[in-house]
Amino acid sequence: MEYWSFAGWALSKAFAGVDHGTAKILHKVTWWTHSFMSLGLIAYIPYSRLIHIITTPANHFMLSLKTAGYIEPIRDFENAESFGAGKLDEFTKKQIFDSEACTRCGRCQDGCPAYLSGKPFRRRR
User: Fold this and answer.
1) How does DSSP classify residue 87?
2) How much is the pLDDT for 35?
């Protein structure tokens, strides 16, 4: 069954002539190196663009059940002082989470009517 683990099989052949004491030391060194690198990557995820590995599935879980393109009506339209969101406080928690889950792939920009109008507007940063 060594053909399923071809990299491990090749590595075992490379270290076939190593004595037992040296093999134990090499095992410990590679095990600890692998552990620190793995845990370092996990610790790095929240501070990098890799955070979308966590936020995108969570965002899909919290997907709205309303039809695509549904716009919430503006309540008290005649007396409203602003339309849309101009400050961070005016966004919903879901909208803020949507921005965290964004991978900046450009698919939203390619289908955006404002962007397609040719005006100087960009959704992506």
Assistant:
1) S
2) 97
